[in-house]
Each structure stands twice: as structure tokens, then as C-alpha cells.
Description:
disordered C terminus, alpha/beta, Rossmann fold, 6 helices, 3-stranded mixed beta sheet, 7-stranded mixed beta sheet, single chain
Amino acid sequence: MSKTIPGVKVAILVANGFNEAEMIAAQKALMQAGANARIVSPEPGLVNGWNGMEWGHHFAVDAPLSSALGADYAMLVIPGGTRSMDKLKITAHTKRFIGSFMAACKPVAAYNDALQILMFTGNLDSRTVSGPEQMKDMAAQAGLKWVDSSTPCIDGNLMTGICAQSEEKTRFAAAMIDFFAEARQKPAIQQEAA
């Protein structure tokens, strides 16, 4: 990873049960690239990750989802995790927050099964996406184009993909930084610094 995004404010959207390894890989890559990564969550104070087959670490929430505004961030990262996705689906502010990034064409990166929360919010009209194989039929039913690929899929302001192994999570995070850095150069995408 040689590209940087110094000072760019990036939201990491998670709820209890998020995939801890994906979030840490994204957070580490963002910090190394100079970004200002902020955790946004419906959980008050602390949010708990899921690590393999058990609960993981707690992370401080920087902004409550109920009052967070997409306008305050330049980019969005959504780590996967079934428990997190289920919680985000029943949280009233999820659609509003994600929708603001999609409507403004701000870069969004979704790890693995985070694709389902993007489908749930209804912001993926005719997009090309990639993710876990078990989501392929769901994507087709939603009218999306599916790409079977081990590399991240980029369609406009959206990056999706699968990364099951540790080294894949690191590669996905590096590709995310490249995607964000390239998007930052495009004048159509407004960027917000910390």
C-alpha cells in the first residue's frame, strides 16, 4: 500500500457482532494511510466484535448512528459479520446513513456479507457486486450483476468483495485504500477532512 489519504474522515459502520478481523484490517490500513477513521455504531459507548467463534474485543464508539451524518464523512467502510448486519437492519438510522453516502457518490467499501446491508438499504440499482457465494442468489433477486472474483469488485463509488483468510483481509484493505485514494482525485466526489 503506497497511496495515502491524509486527514480524510472515514466512517466505519458496525454493530455488536461485527467481524473483528475485517474491522481491524480496515482500521489499520486507514490509519497507516493517514485517514481519520471513526467508528459509527448504534451501540452506546462501546461496540463488541466477533472473533471466530466467540465474542472479541470492545471498541470505543466515536459517533452514535442515531445522530451521525454522512455529510460529516468523506468515505464509508462496512465490515461484515452476521450479528452486526442483523442489528443494523433493525436500526432505523442505517438506511439514512448509508443512503447519504450512496446519494452523494462518496466511496463505500463493504467487506464480505456487508453486501447484504447495502442490498437492504435499497441503494444498489443495477450495480455490479461481489461477495460470499451464498449471497449470489440474493443479489440476482435484487437485480444486481454478480462477479465471481477473488479480487474486489469496483462499480463507481462502491467496492465489494470477499476476503475469508487473514491475508485476503489485508489485501482487501490495501485495495480499499487504493480505491479511496483514486476516488479522492475525482472532482465529482466531495472530500471532507477531519
